[in-house]
Amino acid sequence: MSFFTDLAHQYIDGEWRPGKGSWDIIDFNPFNGEKLASIPVATAEEVDQAYRAAERAQQAWADTNPYARRTVLEKALRIVEEREPEIAEAIVAELGGTHLKAGFELHLAKEFLREAIQLALRPAGQILPSPTEGKENRVYRVPVGVVGVISPFNFPFLLSLKSVAPALALGNAVVLKPHQNTPICGGTLLAKVFEDAGLPAGLLNVVVTDIAEIGDTLLEHPVPQVISFTGSDKVGRHVATVCAANLKRVVLELGGNSALIVLDDADVDYAVDAAVFSRYVHQGQVCMAANRILVDRAVEAEFTEKFVAKVASLTVGDPADPATQIGPLINSSQAESVSRLVDETVESGATALLHGRADGNLVSPSVLTDLPADSPVLQQEIFGPVALLVPFDGEDEAVRIANDTPYGLSGAVHTGNIERGVRVGQRIHTGMIHINDGTVHDEPIVPFGGEKSSGLGRLNGESMVEAFTTQKWISVQHGRSQFPF
C-alpha cells in the first residue's frame, strides 16, 4: 500500500529518511498478515539528532506569537478532517480496528485538536505580592522545552496526538516514538499532518525504533525535560525509574482493571449494553475497558442471561467489513496470551459461559464466571475480549471487590438512583468513574488519568498546561532593598 510505504521513514529535523539501524521494523496488517511497510530502525545516534533538532528549533517556536502557533494547529485540524477517510482506512489496516473504532478514534482526535488550538492561548501569568517593600513578583508560565512522547498501539493516532498537539501549542518541541506495531498511525502519519500544516522543521520529530536498538536513550537523553508515556504499568514503572534518576518529569497513563458495577436497582437492559461495549470495544484492547463486571445477586440471573446473549451475537471477523464488531488482536503473541489465560482460568475452577477460541489473531469473546476469590485473573489487566462476571451482595461488597486491584483508572456504576451511584463512585479508588454509562470515555477538558498502578499525573484541559509548562518567578525591585552587609 503506497500510503504506508510513503510514510515508512524516520522524520528528523524536517527530513524524511531511512533509519541507520541494521534491521527493520516490519509493519503487518494483524488480520491478514499483509506486509504494509518495512522501516529501518532509528539508532541511538538518530535519537540524539532528533532531540538536538528539537532543542534548536524550540526557542524560536516558544517566542512565536501564540496566535501564530494556533494557526498551525488549525491547519492540522483541517487536514485531519479532509483526510479522515484515508486515515480511517489506515487504522483498520494497521491495527485491526473496526470501522466503528476508527470513527470513534478520529472523532476524539478532532476534539483534542480543537482543544489544543485553544491551549495555545491558555497559559497565564500572575503578579503576586511581596513582604519586601517595593518588590513585585511576576510568575510566568513558560514551555518546558522539549517533550519526549512514547505512544501505544491501541489508539495510536489519538494517543500520540493527545500529547503532541498540546505540547506544540504550548511552545514546546517534541520527539515522538510510536509503538513498533503502529509506526505509521502512531507516528509518521502525524508528522505528515503537521508538516503539511506548516509546522517549522525540527519541532516534531518521529523516531521509529525499539529498546533493543536504543536502550534507554529516549529517556536518559539530557534534552527532554518531560516524558509522556502511555502503555503498560510494567514498562511505565521502568520509565518512571529511569526518569527519576535523571530528574525528569513524567506523565504516565498506564493500564487498568476497571469494574462496571450493576446495583440492584439498575436498568438491566441498559447496563448490559454499557457493559458489552465497555468490555469488547476494540477487542478489549483499551486501558479503560471493564475487565470486571460486578453484578448484585438480586439481578445476577437476568443480567447474565442477557449479557451472554448479546456477547454471543457480536460479529467477529475482518475489520474492513463494516458489519464486524470484533476484529483481530494486534499480534499473535497477544492472541496466544489471551487464549492461554482463558484456558488456564477455566482449568483453575472458573465457568466459561462463552469460551472464545483463537483463529489466527482473531479471538472470539469469552465470558467467565464462578471465579475463585483468589483467581489471579481478577487482579490483572486483560487486553483482549474476555469478560469476568462477579456477583456481590450489597454496595459494601461491591466497593470492596472493585477496590481489590492494584489498578485505579476508570469504572462505572449503574443504578436507578443517581446520587446513590455518585456515593458509591466516591468510594472507588480510581481517577475516573461514570454513573449510568460505560467505562470507556475521554473528553478534551476533563482531567484524564489514574490512581495506584494506573499512572501518575493527568492529561487534558488545564492538566496539559501543568504537564507541558513550568513556572518561572521573576521579581522586580522598584525601590532599593536593604542588605545586612
Structural class: alpha/beta
Give the DSSP E fraction (strand runs of 2 or more residues). 15-25%
Characterize the largest beta sheet: strand count, sense, and whether it forms a barrel: 7 strands, mixed
Describe the global form.
globular
| Uncertain runs | none
Mean pLDDT: 97
Task: Bin the helical content.
Answer: 25-40%
Question: What is the radius of gyration computed over CA atoms, rounded to a whole number of angstroms?
Answer: 24 Å
Can you count the helices? 16
Question: How far is the first residue's CA from the last residue's CA?
Answer: 75 Å
Lateral arrangement of strands in the main beta sheet: 14-17-18-13-12-20-21
Strand segment count:
24
Structural features, described:
This protein is α/β, with parallel strands linked by helices and 485 residues long. The chain contains 16 helices and 24 strands. Strands 14-17-18-13-12-20-21 form a seven-stranded mixed sheet, with helices on both faces. Strand 3 and strand 4 form a beta hairpin. Helix 5 (99-119) packs parallel to helix 6. The longest helix is centred in the N-terminal third of the chain and has 21 residues, at 99-119. The chain is globular and about 80 Å long. The model has no long low-confidence stretch (mean pLDDT 97).
